[in-house]
Structures are given as C-alpha cells and as structure tokens.
Amino acid sequence: MLLSAALPVDAQTPAQWRDSLAVINRQIATRPYSSDLHLRKAAINLELQQWEYAAEEYGLILAREPKNPAALFYRAYANTHLRRYDLARRDYEDFIAVVPRNMEAMLGLAHVCIKLQRTSEAMDHLNRLVELYPDSAVVYASRASLERDLRSYDAALYDWTQACRLAPDNTDFAISRTDILLSLGRKDEARGELDALVRRGVPRGALREWYDRCR
Length: 215
Description:
Elements: H1 14-30, H2 35-47, H3 51-64, H4 69-81, H5 85-98, H6 103-115, H7 119-132, H8 137-149, H9 153-166, H10 171-183, H11 187-199, H12 208-213
Helix pairs in contact: 1-2, 2-3, 3-4, 4-5, 5-6, 6-7, 7-8, 8-9, 9-10, 10-11
C-alpha cells in the first residue's frame, strides 16, 4: 500500500487545485460513496492547507472504514497542523496497528508526543526507530534533536555523528553536530568541523554564529 496514492501527484497552482476540488465535489454529489473520491478530495484540501476540511473528510471515510490506513495517516497529519496533538497521536497509533513499522508514522507519533510533553514516550518511539532503521540518517537526527532538548549532549553527539556518517553532504546535520560539540566545550573540534564545511563550499559568513562561539 502506497500512501502517496492518496495524494495528488501533479504540480498545480492553488487556482487549479480549487478547480479540481470543484470537479470532485460534483462527482461526490452525483455518485454513491467512493473512498477514492473522498481521499482525493481530502488530498486536495491538504494541498490547499485546508486542514480542518481535510480532517473532516478523512473522518467521513473512517466512519465507514475505521482501519483505512491512508485516512488514518493523513488525518493525523492534518490534526498535527491543527495542533490537535492528542487526536493526531491516536490516529498514528491506530495507523501503526494496521501498518506496523512504518517509519513516517512512527516519526510522526514521536513528534506529537514531544508536543504533548510526553518525552519519555517519544524517546521510546525514537529508540525503536533506531533499532528498526539503523541506516536512516533522519531517524538518528530526530533522536539527536530530542536529546539536545533534554541536554543529553553526549548521546546527542553520538546520534548526530551517525546522522552525518549516513548523510555526509547534509550541511544542517553537520552544523547540528558542531552545535553539540560547542555545548560540550569542545571548541577546537567544533572549529575543525566548521573549517571542513567552508572547504565544502559553505560560505564562512553563514557560519559566523558558530565561529563566534568557538572563541
């Protein structure tokens, strides 16, 4: 099952999306219930950042099909944008019960747990993700971000190092690793990391904040 099938794939302007929405609304009004049509409608709502309408549309689908994975996943996504984190958490959990080990859903669940200040639960999800996806730079980076917030700098340094190893061209990861080195007082190592970024083509001026902290 590809969740992307529940989202539009063509790049369109907002006006074109609204035209597409009008067409689908007419189709829905003249046909029996079709989950495909309602998924397409909700997907366009997402494209137009109509989070409330999208959440309602996915709710309509789930009233008929409580385990529809696309509706669960994207309603969680819409509710996250609406800051309804408890509702998003529930949908992500229900989705994972249907589609276990889905990385995007597990990351989404960890994110909403952080928003709900359930940091221990979020860390449990991120630890599980590292076990399941040890070759994912994004997973290590996500755990490192939480560890930094918790001031677990040694753990964050390990995870940022892993993220940089897996995605060596990612400048943001490298800067985040440098930030942790500075938090640990390892200024010489941090300066070396910054110099390496400059050699890779990152403008020195863009790194001024971190160079200033190396003094």
